[in-house]
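Consider the tokenized backbone below.
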């Protein structure tokens, strides 16, 4: 029987961050990470296209929590304890400098996730954290004074246990056996599959500032929209997928969206088009792109308005003007399925937040059982927010566990 003071199940971002902080705050503790794979930190490796989107440049707790469809209320207190600035300082103290990009995402200045992985592995080694790979957990049992963990490589006991396994159905099942309620997971960050003549053949086109509504719901978002080979993506879509995760799952990912490409009302757009009819009378509508839209998108919307390539502005009739205004401000697209956003699979679901003490991230059902990261029912929009949840939860849990 292998005995430890602290065991962390899960060798991902939250697991390593917690282990390092525990070992640093109390060097007398014997700390181990149990990782089921042959290597850990795989989500760190692929995050941000291999650059690792460490966090997001939002430094006000009340603003930061608004990026969490599930966990907004619960994370407000924890973010007052450990927030973005603390994350930046933590990494800088260990020789990893972060940079802020235009959209607020933060990456290591090396633009390589290996920088973060190396930092964790070096820190774990320096603080004598044992990393046990290929240790798949089979059972978790509570004894009178310690936890017993059965793995594929042997059995362990520990006084304090942290679960940081992310979206792991097997671990959730074990936690249910301990009396915890697991909110059924559904995908949270995904793109929309759309087959439509208006966006066929123009992948890579970006409309920089659109407004999108899911018809027959209260869901809406705004921001950049990317047209892909299979449909639509980018922040405007990903926000909808995160905040609408549960509702869109119930619709089996088949629904209609309305896109306002120029964020104007139909009436204002129509007035503007009438002005263009006078101003650009001799020019063809097809070739004179307006509203700062990408040229290829403008062409598609013009043709969808029953305006041919040779039609001049002066020759537009009332019906064509109304059609174009509608395509620009009220374009309806049918969504027929979803696709995973890159390789960054995020789910809504996990341990019920009501069963966690967010002052310490300890279970309310069992003493000396802690959680960090996506194993709990917290998820965020894309941009480094899911990692910030992992750092915050892991740090606060580590502080409590190191005592």
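A designed sequence for it:
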């Amino acid at each position: 029987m292998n005995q430890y003071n602290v065991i962390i199940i899960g060798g991902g971002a939250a697991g390593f961050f917690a282990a390092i902080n525990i070992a640093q705050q109390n060097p007398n503790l014997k700390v181990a990470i149990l990782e089921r794979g042959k290597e850990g930190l795989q989500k760190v490796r692929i995050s941000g296209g291999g650059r690792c989107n460490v966090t997001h440049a939002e430094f006000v707790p009340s603003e930061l929590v608004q990026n969490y469809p599930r966990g907004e209320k619960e994370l407000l207190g924890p973010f007052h304890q450990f927030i973005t600035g603390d994350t930046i300082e933590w990494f800088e103290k260990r020789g990893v400098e972060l940079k802020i990009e235009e959209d607020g995402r933060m990456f290591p200045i090396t633009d390589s996730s290996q920088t973060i992985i190396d930092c964790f592995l070096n820190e774990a080694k320096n603080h004598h954290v044992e990393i046990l790979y290929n240790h798949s957990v089979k059972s978790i049992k509570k004894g009178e004074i310690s936890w017993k963990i059965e793995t594929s490589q042997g059995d362990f006991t520990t006084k304090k246990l942290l679960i940081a396994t992310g979206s792991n159905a097997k671990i959730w099942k074990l936690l249910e056996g301990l009396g915890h309620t697991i909110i059924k997971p559904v995908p949270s960050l995904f793109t929309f599959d759309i087959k439509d003549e208006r966006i066929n053949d123009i992948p890579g086109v970006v409309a920089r500032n659109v407004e999108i509504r899911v018809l027959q719901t209260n869901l809406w978002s705004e921001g950049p929209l990317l047209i892909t080979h299979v449909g639509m993506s980018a922040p405007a879509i990903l926000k909808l997928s995160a905040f609408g995760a549960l509702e869109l799952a119930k619709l089996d990912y088949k629904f209609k969206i309305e896109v306002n490409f120029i964020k104007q009302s139909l009436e204002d757009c129509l007035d503007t088009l009438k002005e263009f009819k006078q101003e650009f009378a001799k020019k063809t509508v097809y070739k004179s792109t307006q509203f700062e839209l990408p040229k290829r998108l403008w062409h598609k919307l013009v043709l969808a308005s029953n305006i041919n390539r040779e039609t001049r502005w002066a020759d537009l009739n009332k019906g064509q003007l109304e059609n174009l205004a509608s395509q620009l401000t009220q374009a309806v697209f049918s969504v027929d399925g979803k696709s995973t956003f890159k390789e960054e699979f995020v789910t809504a679901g996990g341990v019920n937040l009501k069963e966690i003490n967010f002052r310490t991230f300890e279970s309310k059902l069992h003493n000396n059982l802690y959680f960090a990261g996506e194993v709990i029912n917290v998820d965020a929009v894309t941009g480094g927010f899911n990692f910030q949840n992992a750092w915050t939860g892991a740090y606060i849990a580590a502080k409590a566990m190191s005592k």
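The chain has a mean pLDDT of 97.
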